[in-house]
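Researcher: I'd like a candidate sequence for this fold, 583 residues long. If you have to choose between options at a position, lean toward the conservative one.
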């Protein structure tokens, strides 16, 4: 195993991706291999990765269901998993007519994509003490697929390979020890070449080093490990008083891969303690003085070695829990130039030059998606630097906006190359926060490390709300916008059929005209959504698949903020609903 922290490699290797993987793992015709993943954006009949393809557009070129006939969309079949504590947050995958998805507590399902008939079910046996020792159990947000297997990370720090045809375990490996703190995996893995990548959670826990792992897809052995904090001199020097040893961080959502530079892009989590009493003197005082690299950052890694190529810290000394672990990295080309788009939890959309020889990364533009923010005055569009920081101070800090839940959550937006628009949800809410001097837990202990308590509130002068913006992805110019009484928390899907699908917090799934935002179709799915939505074909027919279920930490704010239907909405059920046009 190679364990890289953050030593830079100035050269970019020219690689033939398909040739490299061919020697490592053989793949039969029709099997999901690296070459097929490289071309996933040209394969609309399937949904092969968490983000749909390495471009991460969350877009499909299917148009059998379109703006002219979507009014006829009906439920084709429903699958109800067992033990759906906190609902279902998974992103399904669809491969050659078979749909795979996870539900809570390490369950994996393989279903016939046309009928919903169960092909197999797998249930991981979890270390409950370790799993329940985090804030994140029993979340699971999805799978990776390739080389005859589906891959899942678990909340007790393991990765498991399961035969995609039989549901039998191929290998089951403990990837993450508890030495750096009690952390596990909740995000979906990402298959790159002959490796499976996954990042740890734990930004609220005392410990380090927030690792991102690459494991051998065939054996499960760790090939490399990148530590998001404490891994090099630059990082350690940016944590005063050796506070990196209790610094948290991680990379809990799924990043992406750029074949042109052989680079992995990943977002990192907030530092611990979550919130800090350092106030205006955060560079030299408080629980973690300094910038706290590489927390709340974007890191670009060599796919073969895990060595750091470049980075950009979107939230230096993140005082607000507005981390960069949002896994949405969209590769967009315009005018012969490439751009990488990344949303931040603080409500900022960063547009990067994807050339990793720039150290740190070069920001081409940065603009605010959030509308009711007061933690900063804005962001410099040329440098990505925060303007007019408003620090938190020990004691009461009323009506700070947005709330800890962010102006942007972990859910993904969508880019539609036909309309040229980027569709993204924003959340507008605030909180009253009481910052305290928390006693630091022992280094590497994995204990909870919070520096505040808080209560969610409405923005001054109006109730909390959400909005869907349709923007030029590079300039941020708004083409149209739709406001929501309840901020949607699920991911979006757009299609060549001029549709944008929006799974709502109150259980309403709707299809909008991608060109105008007009509502074309709605369905009451019975419970709120905060998971994934995809489209695929089976037997030549297009389907839309969406997961339902309620009960995340963010959704817990909806009852006190909005009342019903959220106060009586259960948080221990969820389903997979699949829609199609009638024959």
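Model: Candidate sequence:
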């Amino acid at each position: 195993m190679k364990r890289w922290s953050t030593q830079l490699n100035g050269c970019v290797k020219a690689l033939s991706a398909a040739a490299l993987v061919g020697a490592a793992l053989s793949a039969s015709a029709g099997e999901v291999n690296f070459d097929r993943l490289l071309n996933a954006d040209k394969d609309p009949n399937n949904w092969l990765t968490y983000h749909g393809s390495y471009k991460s557009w969350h877009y499909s070129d299917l148009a059998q269901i379109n703006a002219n006939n979507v009014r006829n969309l009906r439920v084709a079949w429903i699958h109800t998993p067992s033990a759906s504590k906190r609902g279902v947050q998974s992103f399904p995958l669809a491969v050659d007519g078979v749909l795979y998805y996870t539900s809570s507590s390490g369950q994996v399902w393989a279903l016939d994509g046309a009928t919903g008939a169960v092909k197999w079910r797998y249930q991981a046996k979890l270390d409950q003490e370790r799993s329940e020792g985090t804030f994140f159990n029993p979340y699971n947000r999805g799978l990776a697929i390739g080389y005859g297997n589906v891959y899942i990370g678990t909340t007790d720090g393991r990765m498991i390979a399961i035969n995609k045809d039989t549901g039998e375990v191929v290998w089951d490996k403990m990837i993450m020890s508890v030495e750096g703190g009690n952390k596990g995996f909740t995000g979906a893995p990402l298959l790159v070449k002959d490796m499976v990548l996954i990042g740890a959670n734990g930004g609220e826990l005392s410990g380090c080093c927030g690792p991102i792992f690459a494991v051998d897809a065939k054996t499960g052995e760790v090939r490399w490990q990148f530590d998001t904090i404490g891994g090099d001199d630059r990082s350690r020097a940016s944590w005063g008083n050796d506070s990196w040893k209790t610094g948290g961080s991680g990379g809990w959502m799924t990043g992406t891969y750029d074949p042109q530079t052989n680079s992995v892009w990943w977002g990192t989590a907030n530092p611990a303690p979550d919130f800090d009493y350092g106030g205006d003197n955060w560079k030299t005082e408080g629980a973690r003085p300094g910038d706290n690299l590489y927390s709340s950052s974007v890191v670009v890694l060599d796919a073969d070695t895990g060595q750091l190529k470049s980075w950009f810290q979107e939230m230096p000394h993140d005082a607000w829990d507005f981390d960069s672990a949002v896994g949405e990295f969209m590769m967009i080309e315009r005018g012969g130039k490439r751009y990488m788009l990344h949303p931040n939890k603080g409500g900022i959309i960063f547009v990067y030059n994807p050339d990793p020889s720039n150290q740190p990364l070069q920001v081409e533009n940065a603009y605010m998606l959030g509308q009711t923010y007061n933690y900063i005055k804005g962001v410099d569009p040329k440098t990505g630097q925060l303007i007019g920081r408003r620090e938190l101070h020990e004691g009461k800090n009323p009506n700070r906006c947005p709330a800890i839940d962010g102006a942007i959550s972990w859910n993904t937006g969508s880019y539609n190359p036909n309309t040229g628009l980027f569709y993204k949800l924003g959340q507008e809410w605030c909180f009253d926060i009481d910052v305290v001097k928390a006693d630091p837990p022992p280094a590497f202990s994995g204990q909870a490390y919070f520096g505040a308590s808080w209560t969610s509130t409405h923005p001054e002068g109006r109730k909390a709300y959400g909005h869907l913006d349709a923007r030029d992805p590079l300039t941020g110019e708004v083409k149209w916008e739709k406001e929501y009484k309840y901020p949607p928390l699920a991911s979006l899907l757009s299609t060549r059929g001029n549709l944008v699908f929006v799974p709502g917090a109150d259980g309403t799934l709707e299809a909008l005209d991608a060109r105008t935002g007009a509502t074309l179709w709605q369905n009451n799915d019975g419970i709120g959504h905060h998971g994934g939505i995809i489209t695929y074909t089976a037997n030549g027919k297009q389907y839309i698949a969406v997961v339902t279920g309620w009960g995340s930490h963010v959704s817990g704010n909806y009852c006190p903020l909005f009342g019903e239907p959220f106060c009586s909405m259960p948080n221990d059920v969820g389903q997979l609903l699949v829609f199609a046009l009638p024959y």
